[in-house]
TrEMBL record, chain A:
Domain called RNA polymerase sigma-70 region: residue spans: 28-95
Record's protein name: RNA polymerase sigma-70 factor, ECF subfamily
NCBIfam families found in the cross-reference section: sigma70-ECF
Residue ranges constituting the RNA polymerase sigma factor 70 region 4 type domain according to the UniProt record: 123-175
Xref: PANTHER family: RNA POLYMERASE ECF-TYPE SIGMA FACTO, RNA POLYMERASE SIGMA FACTOR HI_1459-RELATED
Short name of any one Pfam family annotated for the protein: Sigma70_r4_2
CDD domains documented for this protein: Sigma70_r4 (cd06171)
Automatic annotation (TrEMBL), chain B:
Transmembrane segments: 89-111
Protein name: Uncharacterized protein
Highest taxon, organism lineage: Bacteria
Alphabetic keyword roster: Membrane, Transmembrane, Transmembrane helix
Length: 184, 196
């Protein structure tokens, strides 16, 4: 049953995938694999490991399409699968704790003009995003790149919506301080 | 970020162009007075374009698809978990139907012989009818791959496809049929192996 999906084309493709349609799976893959890869990379720095997780995620889409209940959009469902696989992967690797506390780095107020100038420089912005914790990078990516709503981000990350907003708030604060230094 | 007179929802709506006009007016008035808010909005607007520059590129996506395609073609029975029971039921029905058709055909042929006349024809399935298996091929199995598989198990198609796509494979002996069964069941080219 495909209900509540935001994108009718995604829902149609997923229904066909549930029936074993490889062409539909290819279309779904081409639409979502790259966003999923970027999301996984926001939590995991190794490109080849990210590629493996994308593969496992999309394989789960193929295997589980018929079980999709439509409680979220297809896109959110796929991102949730990716998030869970990333968490599992990191736990197995025991290299990073995804439960790490949010950074709180009090410091000087950033210079607004420096931030405004640096925010136009994609390379600088990426450099600063790369310095965020995995938790902060994930919410920033989902909210500002994937343009998901905060409730959708909360569902994918498995955290309360309020926590998403807190992470976004702190991430912006950290990014502004970082950009202020780079732009100054 | 000196001010928190606007919620995260307000700011996100504004950046996405989805804020109500009155909210947009208030945010813009505040931005004019507060450089920190102006900087925050600039950052929020800059994040999307900046992160878009991290694409892996079409080659990586194409490679990823080829890898996934190979994996899903190796496990045709693994797809659509919830649909699997329905599909198995369909195949069981198909196998039962095939058995009925085979029985009817045998009765018909026997009737021809008991009539004391030479059969007017010999069905293609008749010579192999004693050692057969019903099989359903995977939808994406190619003819060349099927031919190679059948050659390897010394089987040949003696009938089919039926109305629902089931084929009958004939074998030279019961031993050959039994030896082939496991290989057919393990092959990704075969969706179902059914006895008659």
């Amino acid at each position: 049953m495909i209900e509540g999906a935001d994108d009718p084309r995604d829902a149609e493709l997923l229904a066909r995938v549930a029936g074993g349609d490889v062409a539909a799976m290819r279309a779904l893959y081409l639409a979502h694999a790259e966003p999923v890869r970027r999301f996984v990379r926001s939590r995991l720095r190794d490109e080849s490991e990210a590629a493996d997780i994308v593969h496992e995620t999309m394989l789960s889409v193929w295997r589980g399409a018929a079980g999709f209940q439509g409680r979220s959009s297809v896109r959110s469902w796929i991102f949730s699968l990716a998030r869970n696989k990333t968490v599992d992967h990191v736990r197995k690797q025991a290299r990073v704790s995804l439960g790490e506390p949010d950074e709180t780095t009090p410091g000087d107020d950033p210079n607004a003009d420096d931030v405004i100038a640096a925010a136009q420089d994609a390379r600088r912005v990426r450099e600063c995003v790369g310095k965020l914790s995995a938790n902060h990078r994930a919410v920033v990516h989902l909210a500002f790149f994937e343009e998901l709503s905060y409730p959708e981000v909360a569902a994918i990350e498995g955290i309360p919506e309020g926590t998403v907003k807190t992470r976004v708030f702190h991430a912006k604060k950290l990014l502004m301080r970082c950009l202020s230094r780079l732009g100054g | 970020m000196a001010t928190r007179q606007f919620s995260e929802d307000d700011l996100l709506a504004y950046v996405r162009g989805a804020a109500r006009p009155d909210l947009s007016d208030r945010i813009e008035a505040a931005m004019a007075a507060e450089p920190a808010l102006k900087a925050e909005i600039a950052l929020m607007r800059g994040l999307g374009p900046a992160l878009r520059g991290e694409d892996a590129g079409p080659d990586a996506t194409a490679f990823g698809w080829r890898r996934l395609e190979a994996a899903i073609r190796r496990e045709p029975s693994g797809r659509a978990d919830a649909a699997a029971p329905r599909r198995m039921a369909m195949w069981r029905a198909a196998a039962a139907l095939l058995a009925v058709v085979g029985l009817g055909q045998a009765v018909y042929i026997a009737a021809q012989w008991t009539g004391g006349e030479a059969p007017a024809y010999r069905t293609a399935s008749e010579p192999a009818a004693r050692h057969v298996l019903g099989v359903g091929f995977a939808p994406d199995a190619t003819a060349a791959a099927i031919a190679e598989l059948l050659t390897s198990v010394e089987a040949r198609i003696v009938d089919g496809p039926g109305a629902i796509g089931l084929y009958r494979l004939g074998f030279a002996s019961a031993e050959a049929r039994d030896a082939a069964r496991a290989r057919l069941e393990a092959s990704p080219l075969i969706d179902l192996v059914a006895d008659e």
